[in-house]
Amino acid sequence: MSINFRPLRLITLQITVLSFILCALPIPAASDSDTLSQPINDGPYLYRQNDSTIITMYLCNDTLVIDTTYSNGNEFRVPGLCYDSGSEYMVPKTGFEISPDTYSGVSRVFAISDIHGEYEYMIEILQIGGVIDSGLNWIWGNGHLVIDGDIFDRGDMVTECLWFLYRLEQEARLSGGNVHVLFGNHEEMIINGDNRYVNDKYMKGIVASTRINHQDLYGPDMVMGQWLRTKHTIIIINDVLYVHGGISPSFVDYGFTADMINEEVRRNLGINSVQYRFDEIARKMYGSSGPLWYRGFWDAKKGRYNKATNAGIDSILTFYNATSIVVGHTNMDSIMTHRDGRIFAIDVLFEDLGSLQALLWKDSCFYRVDGEGNLTKLR
Questions:
Q1: Residue 185: Cβ within 10 Å count
Q2: Predicted pLDDT at 118
């Protein structure tokens, strides 16, 4: 069965950028041998200086630009990518609220995972699924979109992905829908200063130009950092639990509710090594059995992950009042079910497939949505 609409392939987003110059911790400026072959465009990065002022920084064709935006009533209006007059971001003056982590009665849910800075793949599958139109506007009505972790790292359009989802979340809520951006292990890595998988564009571009550490670009004084710090690690929609890595049965033994997990992951973002060493709960949340990293629904990978038995998965579903669990984090050839339909794996090798895939829930059934718009019923 095919979805009726076949949207146009993505017209590549044309990015522009402004700038900002703050000297933070010393970072060596990029030498000629370190520069990339193409001029770098990146931004915006927004520093909330006080209640009435945001400092904006963009990188436009390798040129760092800084500007100041003042509040207009209850919000700031920040120009889009490099002062592109076609886009503008609304930033609330009072900051961001934490949304509920449990929902019922949702008409339909569209879930994707592990975007890793691949903006065009993300846009394409959202258009194919009818979540957005050719103008990148929300048309999913009162449906929900779940981004099941790992927007960051590897790809070179992380900034575009983040700001697109930021804007789409606002549009969705005006229509009675919602966008849920969940934490994955790569969000935790970036905020906690692990830059192993950061694309060179960012380290040799905005980081070298501003001399600001990469993790500080998403710190608690930055608008994007503030927005990310309101996000959940686990949500439950229509009795379906969404989490990036998985849930170890040991979390049931510890009595970690969804609320507790979400609060503890947020609380420990940016934790230093001394605090981490002596905070047992933080180690559980960010460890191999934690919801960001756990792979125990699959093979136990040389003993690093305690493999969950079927009885263990049943205990998880019972504890969280869920009927199934949707996870990313572990690459699959295609979106698939596991453990008799109790687990859905949605992290796919999109470069091999030529597109992302999505998991659609509607009318109490699950469907795989592929890059051609085909629906395959999974359960």
A1: 22
A2: 97
